[in-house]
Fold:
Amino acid sequence: MPSEFDIIRQYFSPQSISQTRDDVILGIGDDAAILAVPDQHQLVQSVDTLVSGVHFPVATSPEDIAYKALAVNLSDMAAMGAKPAWFALAITLPTDDEEWLKAFSQSLLSLAEKYNMQLIGGDTTRGPLSISITINGFVPTGKALTRNTARVTDKIYVSGCIGEAALALAAWQGQCLLNEESINVINEKLNRPQPQVELGLLLSDYASACIDISDGLIADLAHITDNSQVGARIIFEKIPLSKEFKQNLTDDALIVPLVLSGGDDYQLCFTIPEKNNDEFKKIIKNTAILVTCIGEIEKESGVRCIKDNKEINISEMGYQHFISD
Ligand code: ADP
Ligand code: MG
Structure:
């Protein structure tokens, strides 16, 4: 049975990390890491924990667990407009399953490499499986995207398609039937969300506010409007849906809640001031990034969603906590 030191050395130590960054003065192996933040930049930090049986089904593969644990943290960097740099891994392991550890660390480090990130430390303990990642990134001083700076008349945008992860979960739980091809496509969306890091970096020059959609479109947009002391109106028909929705679902009673309240998409929801809108559209056209304008920031507090020219009663759908007092 490998000791904790063997595990760290074999799976997480510098030898197993293919890239190293100049700004890591001292990485894994001492009591703490020493890191250098570039001049004229601020450090942006976030932590997210995934617990087996709570945040992912017990049977999830080690590759998918590792991918998602880092991807959700990368998504927080994207939402802040930050460039990811370093991460630390606190892992609690029930057993010394070396096959599992190998698959986990390979998947984790290969996603890290894609974003030129370095694992700079962590903690390894025994107990029920849980993975906690602390991520660090940089923004040029004063350029971070926050939730509290949306203004009336700003355009509301989302990236990608909305509700895909919720659709995968609904199918998995037997709430709807999908054709074979759609199941594979949509499961990939749930297990391998693509953090919108490139978009986040681009948005720091154009957006007034930004959030990543982890709890659901309405819930996360409500974080922007509440923190900014404004409201929002979105048009349901404008929300981009993937072809898996269109091919498999016809019942609005199922579609609407999946799209408006389904979480785990890790797309960005952001606001663009009118004065930046034309330039933003021009810039985004030159990239492969999909963004869609779905509404506008208004003075009246709360989030309103219009479908078939009528306001959907969000409160009836279990969104009580979004209604302002
Ligand atoms: P300490 O007892 O001083 O906290 P540890 O024995 O926990 O040190 O860890 C030794 C070194 O290995 C530290 O540099 C720590 O950051 C690193 N480390 C421990 N667990 C992990 C892990 N899961 N991933 C990456 N580095 C780790
Ligand atoms: Mg320790």
User: Anything to note?
Assistant: Residues 318-325 have pLDDT under 50 and may be disordered. Residues 123 surround magnesium ion (ligand 2) (CB under 6 Å). DSSP finds ten helices and 13 strands in the chain. The two ends are 58 Å apart (CA to CA).
